[in-house]
Amino acid sequence: MTDENVLSENRIHMLIPKPKKFRIKHKICPMFECETCGIGNAIFQFASAFGIALHLNMTLVITENELFNNIFYIKDKNIQRYKNREICDKMSVITENFGCCAYDSKFRNLNSSRDYRLRHYLHSWKYFHGYEDRIRKVLVFKRHLLTFSENVIKNLISKHGFHSRSDAITVGIHVRRGDMVKKFQRGYNVPTKNYFANAIRYMSSKFNKTILFIIASNDKEWTLKNVISNKDLKNYKIELLTNDKPEVDFTILSNCNHVITSVGTFGWWMGWIANGLTIYYKWPARPNTFLGSQYNKNFTDFFYPDWVGIP
Q: What is the pTM of this model?
């Protein structure tokens, strides 16, 4: 080979860029293994795992049959769907150390060159802090649910003499009892009728506009007796939903302007999605009980700092 040919080859190598080294994104797989867990638990596990994946520049793996797939269109470039969970079976399992509802910082400091399965509940907003906008873009309600909920709210507003949603403020109220009352020995607290009365009065004091309160509950009898028929609330506009489908209640209350929660993750996510003023029951668990041990002090890992706690 002549010197001229060598120079020519060198010039060609200089002109052709070297192939880029692409880093294979490793995967995060949340373990949705609680068969009796509801919508709120599933969304928390999804959102926390997604926040961790985004923080570590990893890919989130979910399957087609997760509970929240019936409610939301879940689409994002950092999310991969599979028909089953077999892809997750060989991943390293990382378990939270401090209980269901306390933040464990190790999850956001994992080695991103490995694949992980995360367990268990991940009920803390701190896991997805900084990625809220991205998660809001992913949690888009299915069209049929959104259309139905908008019609329900529109009809309730019309019932009270308003012409459009802009004429009144809507506040969703979630009254959860049922299973929580039965789990008293484990440390669950349920709000009293005084809590709901105080929350309604507090919410009303914050706005000059007429408010329509819309209640969803898994104990309608108690709600009718202690909230709807409460003489102290007779001057407020309050409606109780008669629907028995959790996904419908969830969509309706999430699409109100503001939310009053009771206990549990179902109402928590209504407040988060509504993204207005959220009032919560300040003491969801009793101290020195199993459930009390699952939270950090003052529940600050579970409730957002700008939400309003009422005892």
A: 0.90
